[in-house]
Specification:
This protein is α+β, with helices and mostly antiparallel strands. It is built from 8 helices and 14 strands. It has a 4-stranded antiparallel beta sheet, with no helix packed on it. Strand 3 and strand 4 form a beta hairpin. Helix 2 packs antiparallel against helix 4, helix 2 runs parallel beside helix 5 and helix 5 packs antiparallel against helix 6. It is extended and about 100 Å long. GO terms for molecular function: ubiquitin protein ligase activity. Pfam families: PHR (PF08005).
Length: 422
């Protein structure tokens, strides 16, 4: 399909340039899959068309203009006789690319939510049946050891949590799913707890002739914590080791680094170490060569340096011991603008209930804790508060008298922007 765009400029060269510039004020939107014939007519003793035109010209954004001989030319102008001297254009490929990316992201969200909805719906139906059969069979014990509770649901909840915290519509949908599943999980835990108390099936720990009864709870609190930090500022040309050792009852640790952690030079590094496996633990992992001495500690994670390489979220490490090794070089940069804060880290140790027949339904209790955590993450409105505060600061006078609504909007109406105006 051809379209003709014609502009006639009759005057000397200076007037032609001025008039051509004025024509640029009215934009001409080009459509796809359409071939345009541009005819430029100029009159005067001077022209700027030149000779030996190119058949194709590439713009700065990789847009390619292809020129060919047109039968609409009055005097048979061809590429060898010259072509249009200047083309002023703009394009928005980034906007189109962003729109396509947004559409793909929305499709991915819908697919993930659809799969999650199907899994949680089937799980809810299964737990309803388990509650109904609780008097006849130990349904809570059976469910607690099933793959749907030990593997499938934890993986689904772990992978769906970033979606819940990044997209408000998805967060509302996931909240509804949690509201559907959480009551059944909590009810099964309460039923199993009451049965265990009636049967006196608490965990017993024997020590010599004395017997202490300890009831372990699957909570996320801990009495084991310490704060590890270097000198502020840290000393150059030194190696400083900081060892954290918790009791044997601690099975895993979480490390939270302060946001001020920084080093001046790339050679100033912090490395974390955990104890190597004991000889009894390494009997199935004999990867060492004959005569090779095993390392007492293993390095974990990468080395931290600068101000941007430090973890921004909690780091989980197994065991009850960790070593912080800060190695610093001589201060050859002498850059006072860089921070020589060093590091500061809060280490929390968590106990784990011992494996015993008395530990009933730990998997269901962990599932309840995971659902509660995801529920709290969904209702965190910090991002929404920042957006609302920014809008109010910019358009406060427009919203000072409120909105003329016929009824309070629902959550979905507010998210979609379809408010019930009068």
């Amino acid at each position: 399909m051809d379209r003709l765009m014609e502009e006639s400029i009759a005057s000397d060269f200076e007037d032609m340039v001025r008039l051509a510039a004025s024509k640029m004020a009215a934009k001409n939107v080009q459509e796809e899959n359409i071939k345009y014939a541009i005819r430029l007519r100029n009159h005067g003793g001077r022209t700027n068309n030149g000779d030996g035109g190119l058949s194709s010209v590439k713009g700065s954004d990789n847009t390619i203009f292809t020129f060919s001989t047109c039968s609409l030319s009055f005097n048979g102008t061809t590429l060898t006789r010259g072509q249009i001297p200047i083309i002023l254009y703009y394009s928005n490929p980034l906007e189109y690319g962003r729109a396509a990316t947004t559409k793909l992201e929305q499709q991915a969200r819908n697919t993930a939510l659809s799969m999650t909805s199907a899994i949680i719906e089937k799980t809810s139906n299964l737990m309803v049946i388990a509650r109904e059969k609780a008097d006849d069979v130990p349904s809570a014990d059976i469910l607690s050891k099933s793959c749907i509770v030990t593997t499938l649901l934890p993986l689904v909840l772990a992978h769906i949590s970033p979606l819940a915290t990044s997209d408000s519509k998805s967060a509302v949908h996931i909240l509804n799913l949690i509201q559907e599943l959480l009551p059944h999980v909590a009810a099964l835990n309460l039923m199993s707890q009451s049965v265990s108390l009636n049967n006196k099936s608490l965990i017993s720990v024997s020590s010599c002739s004395n017997q202490d009864i300890i009831e372990y709870k699957a909570d996320t609190t801990s009495h084991h914590y310490t704060l590890v930090e270097s000198d502020h500022p840290y000393k150059p040309s030194t190696v400083s080791n900081y060892r954290v050792l918790f009791p044997e009852s601690v099975k895993w640790m979480s490390l939270d680094f302060d946001s001020a952690c920084a080093t001046v030079q790339p050679e100033d590094l912090l490395q974390l170490f955990v104890p190597a496996l004991k000889q009894t633990d390494r009997k199935h992992f004999s990867c060492l060569d004959d005569g090779e001495t095993p390392l007492p500690y293993w390095p974990v994670l990468h080395k931290f340096s600068g101000s941007l390489q430090w973890p921004t979220s909690s780091v989980i490490l197994p065991g009850n011991e960790v070593i912080f090794s800060l190695e610093t070089a001589s201060d050859y940069l002498k850059d006072e603008r860089q921070s020589a804060y060093g590091f500061k880290c809060l280490v929390i140790g968590y106990e784990w209930p011992p494996e015993s027949n008395g530990s009933v339904n730990l998997e269901l209790k962990h599932l309840e804790a995971e659902l509660s955590f995801l529920d709290e993450a969904d209702i965190d409105t910090e991002m929404a508060e920042n957006t609302a505060s920014d809008i109010f600061m910019r358009h406060g006078p427009l919203l000072s008298k409120g909105l003329a609504l016929s009824s309070p909007p629902t959550v979905h109406q507010a998210l979609d922007g379809m408010l019930p105006y009068r």
